Please model this.
Amino acid sequence: MTAPALVPSLETARLRLRQVAENDAPALHAAFGDADSMRFWDAPPSPHVSETAYRLRQSRTIDPALHAAFTAVRRDTGIPVGMVNYHGRHHAHGRLAVGWIIVPAMRRQGYAREAAAGLLRHCFGDLATNRVEARIAPENVASQSMAERLGFQREGLMREWALVGSAPRDMVLYALPLWLERVTGIKPSHAAWTVDREI
Model:
């Protein structure tokens, strides 16, 4: 019997999420090398495609029990539209964080939300996570809005949470805990992250 993949492929209505590969670098560099796309990220833009390839290669070396990054590709064409990941996973506490980035030409088509929703299903289901966090720059209104549409709750401002280069950066902490079901009575099957596409 073949052992299951440590980082499985996930599918949504339009996308396949598979572990990042070094040969994704040319397509994903459109995001990782773009100053506008990276202005809210916790790292500076990649100066060259080779740097993006290095980052993807490094991501694959991390234990999937702690971190995994997925390239989101269109199921009909195989074209990459962006990347989503989970990181900072604490299995004993049932907690991890997620992030996302979309290639500029693929924005405003609902791909970020669809990919994030697919990742959340994996985190809550396959990884048995109790709490998912997202750390979003205060100026990143679009990502904050998307997180809220997925059911995340804003918990507060973390001052100078990250150093990007030598510059401190604040982050807003969002969380999507399963206790929300106990408080609101909303079942996971009715949660926003169970929906693949924009509604």
About this structure: Helices lie at 25-32, 35-38, 49-61, 111-124, 141-149, 179-184.
